[in-house]
Design a protein that fits this description.
Elements lengths: L213 H4 L13 H10 L10
């Protein structure tokens, strides 16, 4: 049972354990609560399919296409999705605490309200992803690409964003207390209402960054070699707290 065209079919609540869907097309099919444990999904196409609460433990996802698929509440080991196309997939509210997603391609993925606490996202690709209200506390995002990412209301407490690409990201209301943003690119970001208390902004590029008031920067840990800071604000900060611009002691 492979290379089948099962597009648009209603396959909800069906026992398909260990089924072979190699190379099959299941575009926009309904697979909610379906049992796909140990199924062979190699090169299968699940474009815009709904797999809410489906059981996918032990399935083979090699080169599978889950573009814009809804995987909300699905039971699976996300690390096994490496190499699958997840562009625009819905992983809303997923529990990914302490998972190794190093280098994962998660472009435009919906991770709204997901638990990514202590997760390793080193050099992950998250351009255009929705991480609104997600929990990324103590996560490793060093070198990650978060361009145009929605991080509004996100918990980024003590997160490692060293050398991360955050151009045009929305950080409105984000909690960045104690975050390491050293050498990060913050060009055109929106920081309205964000909390940067004790954050490290060494060598950060703030070109055309929006909503970064004097009071917010006064509470950061370091502004050593910061780039593109507005001249007026820089002068005020140097006059009141010059140590922010000195070489960090740590």
């Amino acid at each position: 049972m492979k290379n089948l065209d099962l597009s648009y079919l209603d396959l909800e609540n069906i026992d398909l354990e260990a089924a072979n869907f190699y190379g099959s097309t299941l575009r926009q099919s309904k697979l909610n609560r379906t049992d796909l444990r140990k199924a062979n999904l190699t090169k299968a196409n699940f474009y815009e399919a709904s797999l809410k609460e489906a059981s996918l433990i032990g399935a083979n996802f090699q080169e599978a296409n889950f573009q814009k698929a809804n995987l909300q509440g699905a039971k699976l080991d996300v690390t096994k999705l490496r190499g699958a196309n997840l562009h625009g997939a819905i992983l809303q509210s997923f529990d990914l605490k302490n998972v190794d997603l190093n280098g994962f391609d998660l472009q435009k993925v919906n991770l709204c309200r997901a638990n990514l606490q202590q997760t390793n996202l080193h050099e992950a690709y998250l351009q255009g992803a929705n991480l609104q209200d997600a929990n990324l506390q103590d996560a490793n995002l060093q070198g990650a690409d978060l361009e145009k990412c929605n991080l509004s209301g996100t918990n980024l407490l003590r997160v490692n964003l060293k050398d991360a690409k955050l151009q045009r990201a929305n950080l409105q209301g984000a909690d960045l207390r104690g975050a390491n943003l050293r050498v990060a690119n913050l060009q055109e970001v929106n920081l309205q209402g964000a909390n940067l208390d004790n954050a490290n902004l060494e060598e950060v590029d703030l070109l055309n960054a929006k909503n970064i008031p004097f009071e917010m920067l006064l509470k950061v840990r370091s502004l050593y070699r910061v780039k593109s800071l507005k001249t007026k604000i820089e002068r005020r900060l140097k006059g009141l707290k010059p140590e922010l611009f000195e070489y960090p002691s740590e």
